[in-house]
Write a structure and sequence with these properties.
Helix 1 packs parallel to helix 3 and helix 4 (69-88) packs antiparallel against helix 5. By secondary structure, the chain is mostly helical. It has a domain at 190-247. The chain is globular and about 60 Å long. Helices cover 75% and strands 0% of the residues. It contains 12 helices and no strands. The chain has helices spanning 5-23, 27-40, 45-60, 69-88, 93-107, 112-132, 137-152, 155-164, 175-188, 193-205, 209-221, 229-242. The termini are far apart.
Length: 247
């Protein structure tokens, strides 16, 4: 059934108010407005992808090393909304980005086999995002992390992924790709702490300690901008201490 003009205006108003709340890190208010928008039109593209991202932000505040059914539920809901966004507009870059990000987060609570099977979807959706918006820094970040996490696996785990599960896409992962994608993310949005933290970690993994320290110095000089930035700052300080005397 077509959405009425009044309902459509209400959807737009709630999404706009949700976006304003996200800018001041008021997740509860933002989600309330996105839910109100979706109650008026469950197929609205922007309401779905923005609600998905807000749920991911909420879940990220619960540490990954703690078992949390609440966090897992948030990530699962985020994935459902992202899939609905892509169904509503397959040419919208942000919907594909939300799907890549939410599948990645939702996979954290799954077993190794499930995570490996879903890895191709994460990569495909990030690449689709970039095809639609070549300047989407978040998608480059996802690709950088995707490559780095595969390269951090043990040789046996990579063999398991490639051979036993037929995940041939894993053969395309490399440290060079991890580095270039994350460097691109930093170039597109140099003020985002998360990009610089992950790039510093990749440099450290590659024993490029001077470059890692340079990224951490840049990060620590930046102002907080996003809801998780205080956490990223603490992680940067720990990494800086860890590699302080490495050359």
């Amino acid at each position: 059934m077509p959405v009425s003009r009044a309902a459509a205006q209400g959807v737009h108003d709630h999404v706009s108010l949700g976006n304003t709340a996200m800018q001041v890190h008021d997740l509860r208010t933002a989600l309330a407005h996105y839910r109100a928008a979706l109650a008026l039109d469950s197929t609205d593209y922007e309401a779905n992808w923005r609600a998905s991202i807000a749920l991911l932000d909420e879940g990220e505040q619960i540490p990954d090393d703690v078992k949390s059914p609440q966090r897992d539920s948030l990530y699962a809901r985020a994935e459902r909304l992202a899939r609905r966004a892509v169904a509503a507009d397959s040419l919208g870059a942000d919907g594909h980005f939300a799907l890549a990000a939410s599948v990645g987060r939702a996979s954290l609570s799954m077993g190794k086999k499930a995570r490996i099977r879903r890895a191709s979807l994460i990569r495909d959706e990030a690449l689709r995002t970039i095809a639609l918006n070549p300047r989407h820094d978040g998608a480059y970040h996802i690709l950088g992390v995707w490559n780095a996490e595969i390269m951090r696996l043990s040789g046996l785990s990579r063999f398991f992924a490639k051979s036993l599960l037929g995940a041939g896409v894993f053969k395309q992962a490399s440290w060079d790709a991890a580095t270039s994608h994350m460097e691109r993310a930093v170039a597109l949005d140099p003020g985002r702490l998360y990009h610089r933290l992950e790039l510093a970690q990749i440099y450290a993994d590659r024993k490029r300690y001077g470059e890692a320290r340079a990224q951490l110095r840049e990060l620590l000089a930046l102002p907080d901008r996003e809801i998780m930035d205080s956490t990223y700052r603490r992680e940067a300080e720990r990494l800086e201490a860890k590699i302080a005397n490495k050359h």
